[in-house]
Amino acid sequence: MSKTNRRQFITKTGALMGAMLTAGIISGSAYAADFPTAKVNTTKLAVTDTTVKVGILHSSTGTMAISETGSIQAEKLAIAQINALGGVLGRKIEVIQEDGASDWPTFAEKSKKLLVNDKVATVFGCWTSASRKAVLPVFEKENGLLFYPTFYEGLEQSKNVFYTGQEATQQILAGLDWIAKEKKAKTFYLIGSDYIWPRTSMKIARKHIEQKLGGKVVGEEYIALGDTQFGSVINKIKLRKPDVIYAAVVGGSNVAWFKQLNAAGLNSKKQHMLTISVTEDEVLGIGGENLEGFYSAMKYFQSLKNPNNEKFVAEFKKMWGPKAVIGDVTQAAYLGPWLWKAAVERAGSFDVTKAAAALPGYEFKEAPEGYVKVDPNHHLESKLRVGKWRADGQADVVYESELIKPDPFPKGYQ
Amino acid sequence: MFEYSMAEIGNIVVMQAFSGLSLFSVLLLMALGLAIIFGQMGVINMAHGEFMAIGAYTTVFLSRVAETYGIVNYYFLFAIVAAFIIAFIIGYIIEFALIRHLYKRPLDTLLATWGLSLVMQQIFRSTFGAKEVSAVLPEWLMGSFQPTPDIDIPINGVFVLALALVVTAGVYIFMFRSRWGLRVRATVQNRVMAGAVGINTKKVDRVTFALGCGIAGVAGAAFTTIASTGPTTGSLYIVDSFMVVVFGGAASILGTIASAFGIAQAQSILQFFMTSSMGKVATLMVIVGILMMRPEGLFASKVRK
After folding, report:
1. Cα→Cα distances B80→A402, B29, B54, B231, Å
2. Is the ipTM, as predicted for this complex, more than 0.85?
3. What's the CATH fold of domain A40-166+305-382?
4. C-alpha distance from A260 to closest chain B C-alpha (Å)
5. Which residues pair with A373 in a beta bridge?
6. Which residues of chain A neighbour B277 with C-beta distances below 8 Å?
7. Chain B residue closest in CA terms to A260
8. Fold category of A169-298+386-400 in CATH
């Protein structure tokens, strides 16, 4: 020590402290020491002093792989970002990914595997309502935690599930109000695929049009899933000449619907259309030229101009390639890991009951869509936006609502 | 209906008639390849839809190439030929590797080709990605033809109709006006005797199967004008294809044409007056009813059993 002068001493200890700090950030161990595993994990979850296991449960094979791939990518991006910041309560997130294979019983089986065998602290997953309904009893029985990203029909609320997409009234009412005012629309033609989400949505839309807007529904039509022939339907629409077509057609039918509509001369110059089932993901298949000028009601568009979103889009493309597009559900899936992190940190515990109880009331200001707040009913308070599609497959946001409170069991609409 | 003027009703009748014809051409293109494979060879090819997907992916791929070279207006006819050739070659290989071992076990062809369809779907998914893709269409295929300002006839519909007629004529000439067709028909009627007079029945089988696959490829290429292409696109078409072939009478190409026409018109008209899904249900009920009375289908072949 005799040869070490004061200055050298300061430099050395400074470097040492710096190194310790860096090591602390990288491994998270210094931070984790404040939260001993025995305390933050009283329900025997897969949490160690340095890691925590979570599950991702989407379809990477089968029909739904088209839609669910974006959600998987967004969740992995969020988890990678959280890990780079030191993880959750100082613990690195480790992902166990399971494939639901577009098959609902498989979803139930895999969710059981994740919760019972792997003891994951939370699961990010499901896309269709059918898959969510299949896993719901498992999550409630095993007391698991699920973050569900898709906009859906509502009529559900569980202590074990957080819904990061919009429920039906958040997506439908403000959009109809806007188009009725903006285009002075009085007559509406409702068309959707034949399953629970479009049918419930159209029920809400019809009530709103007839009772609140004083308009008239001149046709209501449901197309079998996967049907690609719209000739007769388009002729019916031509005969009834609605001011607005309100559409919720999904999957392969969606593409056929827009292509044939255009081929039959009903483009945006002659016909207004508001759809609740087209995001940037769908546009890839439909082709921007077939959509140009039509409107979508969503809470998120890739073209949103705010610093959070610009950063999100850049990092998403960096991870998944410059051609990647980001749709509404992809953004909602991205919120899941961040909200879970907040829940665990607010609770100071990985325990599902404590984390779920701590999340309501949380305001997430870094969301790419801008700002969301977790409501006591486990849905998010968010804004609705109407986008006008451009030929290049992106949308110009032409309307943005106030924050809308989620209302999964709307009175007067059932 | 009295709230509409006569002119409006007239316009709708014209467009509705065309929409029926358009559906007819789609069903016919779907079913022709299957009619050859199922009708002439008795092979239940569950992978028929996937051969359509091969044609569709070929078209999508070529459209991307054409886009980079700026020749989008010219590639489409070439893409149809390419779709035929590629589906033909793959069909030829699959007959050699799989189907020819199963001719004596017709029900096993169902399982084997169903397995094949799953394998092919996953190959599409790994190669082209899970997302649905669309071909960039040439300008001349888009939009509508307007004889009067209120009537729109979709040009892609006219194109598919014309293509269906050309392919049908081609199949007719091949089956009934060429030496090859003669050999195919001879093999179908009596395999042993055909072999005895010097026909290479194994080669006939292979070419017939490949031809059916090639026509499926053409159908897939044509359908890129009306719908998108994804790994599971084929499974959307397989039920309708079998419905047309079975309803028409398995061994009759004329039956397939009549059946496609009947189903298309019934469905198109019923869907106009009922809702879309009810129209489809009603059509299926009519088919079930007719098949109960005529189990062999519309045009049963008169062969001694």
Report:
1. 51, 13, 11, 19
2. no
3. Rossmann fold (3.40.50)
4. 6
5. A363, A381
6. 194, 222-224
7. B226
8. Rossmann fold (3.40.50)
